[in-house]
Amino acid sequence: MKTNAFKARVETVLIILWFVLTGLFRTTDALAQTPTLCASPDQSPEQMAQVQKRVDEWAKAGGQRITGITTIPVSVHVVHQSTGLGDVTDQQVYDQINALNDGFSSTDFQFSLCSIDRTSNDNWADHQYNTQEEIAMKQALAIDPNYVLNFYICASLGGSGVFGYARFPWEGLAAYMHGVVLKFSTLPGGL
Fold first, then answer.
1. What range defines the domain where residue 124 resides?
2. In 25-118, where does DSSP find H-type helix?
């Protein structure tokens, strides 16, 4: 059953994933010896305070903690170039879901792959954060974004060093814009 509480849990996971992405991707890539980046913009202290305020208001208004394991369905959209660059294998997708579950094993969240689709589109495969190509890709491919975590695996993210990004629920964007975008080579078994 799809509920507002479940939608809030998906939003929470997106926030957690953003912190994970920014933490992992603001390190040094040992192979390239160059800084790697998350394209999601840094949030200001004011924005983070607003998020904390929303959580506090929810709790004060009688917000209930959901107990037990919450399984988040995940749809993976593999967006590759016409040359095939970025067309990861199903096994790499399964391995990524396993890695995600391993990373969240100490929480009440688990992830279940519900679909994989593949799209050959050079513009989408090589898009940059916050562009018309991102909007078009997500609008066309997103599956039930209020209740399903959409992962977009792309060939390139508009420049060297950018390995991924996520959108925030508080950005006020259309629901289809939510989700996580990753460069294909960051998946287990990637380049």
1. 4-42+79-186
2. 45-60, 90-103
Examine residue 108 and state whether it is found in any structural domain, yes or no.
Answer: yes
* Residue 137 contacts residue 127 (beta carbons within 8 Å): yes
Percentage of the chain exceeding pLDDT 90: 40
Task: Please give the Cα distance from 129 to 20 (Å, whole number).
Answer: 18
Reported as a single tens digit per residue, the pLDDT across 40-69 is 556 677 866 776 776 666 666 665 566 678
H, E, C per residue of 121-176 = CHHHHCCCCCCHHHHHHHHHHCCCCCCCEEEEEECCCCCCCEEEEECCHHHCCCHH
CB within 8 Å of 2: residues ≥ 6 apart: 146, 147
The total number of structural domains in the chain stands at 1
User: Is this model's pTM higher than 0.70 or not?
Assistant: yes
9 within domain boundaries = yes
Q: How many CB atoms lie within 10 A of CB 133?
A: 19
Residues 156 and 79: their CA atoms lie apart, in Å, by: 10
- Domain assignment present for 171: yes
Task: Provide the 3-class DSSP secondary structure of residue 82.
Answer: coil
In-domain check, residue 85: yes
Kindly state the helix (H) or strand (E) to which residue 114 belongs, with its residue range: strand 109-120
Q: DSSP letter at 25?
A: T
Q: Parallel, antiparallel, or unpaired for β 162-166 and 180-183?
A: antiparallel
